[in-house]
Amino acid sequence: MTRAWVLHPDITSDRDRRDAAPALEEAVSLAVALPDLEVVGADVVSLPKARPGLLFGSGKIEELGRRFEEAEVDLVLIDGPVTPVQQRNLEKEWGVKILDRTGLILEIFADRARTREGVLQVELAALSYQRTRLVRAWTHLERQRGGLGFVGGPGETQIEADRRAIDEAITRLRRQLAKVVKTRDLHRAARRKVPFPVVALVGYTNAGKSTLFNRLTGSQVLAKDMLFATLDPTMRGVTLPTGRKVILSDTVGFISDLPTQLVAAFRATLEEVLEADLICHVRDISHPDSEEQGEDVEAILSDLGVGEARPKFEIWNKVDRLPPEQRAALELMAGRREDVFTLSALTGEGLETLLAAITAALDEERITRALQLGFSDGRKRAWLYDQGVVEEETQGEDGYTLTVRWTARQEKRFREL
């Protein structure tokens, strides 16, 4: 077990900085999300500005060094960006390994990715990060699991910190990814032929998306009180109260200051969101930073190209954790808006209202059409019956005359057959 200490540099000259206490709490949660780490201490370090060579001032470095020695710390996690020069200098000063926020998130993603695409995306992101550093392998996390060579423990292959080797590895990974993405496109094309709308759950990591997903689908997707419990997208069919079927998609959780390499790498993972007919933005309304987390998610959705025109619900989850007065006030506030719903995915309170709203949002206008089909159009005729849209049919000399009542989506799918 690696003994770790978490530091959150609170740089007062940074106008966009987050509140220090919740930021440190989130950083500790990130560290705890790795099974190999034991967090033995955590601090907010206030400083007017980052020092180019050592990040912190010499007095603070000395003071922290003594504490790390007393606590027998092996690894210091710095919740923010650390340059390669700062990393090398701090490791030399303190005699411990240093990992910044990006490195830590990459470690977690390497530990959690399960699908072929997820694993390749993480490796690609990690190599892009490593390329800017040109430092040799981190061997502080000893573990019996897969993941990335350069974050591996003893016995795992180390990626040589040399640009040519990394570039070759990146080229190879991109080729493999292109094949995986091609397969994924075929799956998506097959799904488009299924006339079911897609509802995507998005939200900050640990907002309760997977718990809600499990509650709605009866699935057993990993749902833990842990950051990034879900990495690979999961899709399941759900039957709404009216009998209408929809596909529900659970996606990777967002986080503030998500490493740029990962935003690019996980774009494919979030493509399900771009395809969705309805987006449900799940928020942990009991979290002190719920508002800021919501803004972070909206910013990433905007970066992905999800426009305002796309139907979107905001789900204020975990109301069961709130004191009665606060909960009543929030429910009153949500009641004034048509696109906001309060619920508890854990207890199931408020789910019926949400399902009714999803049903109404996806209940498209139906149009009546007359169709002529030849006897050779058996496949098309079977598809229409399978959709339950045929209202009347008569058989003539040349084939069938059908009266169908369908949605614009179903008509489009039929024309594509």
For the structure shown, list the relevant keywords.
417 residues, four-stranded parallel sheet, 42% helix, Rossmann fold, alpha/beta
Task: Describe the protein in words.
The protein is α/β, with parallel strands linked by helices and 417 residues long. It has four domains: 2-106, GTPase HflX, N-terminal domain (Rossmann fold), CATH 3.40.50.11060; 113-178, no CATH class; 194-362, 3-Layer(aba) Sandwich (Rossmann fold), CATH 3.40.50.300; 366-416. Helix content is 42%, strand content 21%. It has 14 helices and 13 strands. It has helices at 20-32, 58-70, 84-94, 101-112, 116-131, 163-193, 209-217, 260-265, 271-275, 290-304, 324-335, 351-362, 378-387, 408-416, and strands spanning 2-11, 37-47, 75-78, 97-100, 198-203, 234-239, 245-250, 278-284, 312-317, 340-342, 366-374, 390-395, 399-407. The chain has a six-stranded mixed sheet, with helices on both faces. β9, α11 and β10 (340-342) form a beta-alpha-beta unit. α4 runs antiparallel to α5 (116-131) and α5 runs antiparallel to α6. It is elongated and about 95 Å long. Residues 135-161 have low confidence and may be disordered.
| Share of residues in strands | 15-25%
Quick one: CATH class of the largest domain?
Alpha Beta
Report the structural category: alpha/beta
Could you please say which CATH topology of the largest domain applies here? Rossmann fold
Q: Biggest sheet, strands in spatial order? A: 6-7-5-8-9-10
Biggest sheet statistics: 6 strands, mixed
Q: What is the CA-CA span between the terminal residues?
A: 57 Å
Per DSSP, the total helix count is: 14
